[in-house]
Amino acid sequence: MADGTVNGEALGRVVSLNGSRVIGMLTPGEAADAENAPHLQIGSLIKLRINGTQVFGIINGMSVPIPSAVPEEQMKVVELELIGEAGVPANGEAVSFRRGVSHTPSLDDVFFAADADDARMIYTRSDASAIEVGQLHHESAVPVHVSVDALLGRHFAILGSTGTGKSCAVSMILHGILEKHPHAHMVLLDPHGEYAHAFKDQAECIEPGDLQIPYWLFSFEELVEIVFGNEAKDLVNEVAILREFIQQAKTAFVADTDDTLSVTVDTPVPYKMGDLNRLIEDTLGRLDSRGDIVPYQRIKNRLAALQSDRRYAFMFPSSVLVRDNMVAFLGRIFRIPVNGKPISILNLSGVPSEILNVVVSVLCRMTFDLAMWSDQDTPILLVCEEAHRYTSNSTEEGFEPTRRALSRIAKEGRKYGVSLGIISQRPSELAESVLSQCNTIFALRMTNQDDQDFVRASMSDASGGLLDTLPALANAEAIVVGEAISVPMRMRVKSLPDAQRPKSATADFAGSWSSEDGGEGKLQTIVERWRHQRR
Known about the structure:
Helix content: 25-40%
Structural class: alpha/beta
Strand content: 15-25%
Radius of gyration: 29 Å
Number of strands: 18
Distance between the termini: 69 Å
Largest sheet: 11 strands, mixed
């Protein structure tokens, strides 16, 4: 039974119990209806005193079962979800909140409104690594903290419809982490080129014209996708020939360097494209039958077309000299050493859409391999913006190695020190094997029913009342669930100064259309960028 008194206004009494779910009836009259009474809403905290322990719950439903014309006689019912408990403070001593309830209420126990101090105890983490990410929705003076180790150690996701504040939430969280951990190693895949503005001097910004991923760093499966695309399954002979010649070219390069390395077709060692072409030409010179020539000629033509296509210049450098610059490449991408720039932002907006998945696959695979071979000595955070574009739940869309690489990070990354941040406006299109491993989820407003249902299934820790507010959240508001916070909550994302905001704002149609534009000169500039594939 409830015992003693509790500071705060008595709200009502318990009238029904079912496990951790409690139904309470508000006390009619002044206690519930006075102007200075607590404003109750979905997500509000309540508390009971049971056997010397404070038991806390969250309101996840409110109703008037039998309407009455007389306000004083109106029956008001609230549905409560018990979330945890704490000791009773005595002589000014601090008490700590813990999840789970060991003391359950009884019928007719009185419940009270929790105050701001209670909210701070529950929602504000005190560990040294915690960062502030916003304010509690129903107690704006109470800051919300997340644990960095819990956030990164078990992956996180930021989900929501376009324009709800996802990009700003990403920037806010990363800035918060970097403020406390300036020697971090972060990689942000930026498909729209919007984040460089938010990090400026803290970031190694790799623009489309400056992105260099040597062709020899691609696995054989990834290279086949680039060379043959969807036709690969029908070009079995060509794929087999290319495999044999690439391994020969790699072996030749390693032999020239007196390295005793055992080379496979996927070993990340350089090889000369000239050696590969020479192997093809020598074989062509020995063949007489036109039918035998066709596969070799097709490989030769495809490679030549790729090397002459400016869009693929990031793979095929203009210099014929091949250098083993893997250490320099990894150092720049993964910020080793940090040199004052703990985050690298890869602007992928200039990568051809047909091979974007392959490029992401390379980066994800190398992230995992680097962490694995570093023996947990170099923890890395990989943030995937617009993740639904390259880790789709459909096996007919995207590139399977990309989905496989991200799934491997999601399932095994924490063992090797790789953290994954998934950002998406279409969570229902994400591969479940990836999202299911994200143990902290920030869900901003969603209006699509499929997305809402998918997020509900992923946020099993949240009460139905909180999740029902998803379509009604304001911009920069989120439902947060997971390991990095104490209990599920609705919060307001911390605002950022303009200098730390990504360039993700909606275009100003009305302003742009209100006056004459730059005319032919402006269009000429656009055409030049278009033709040269640079911004």
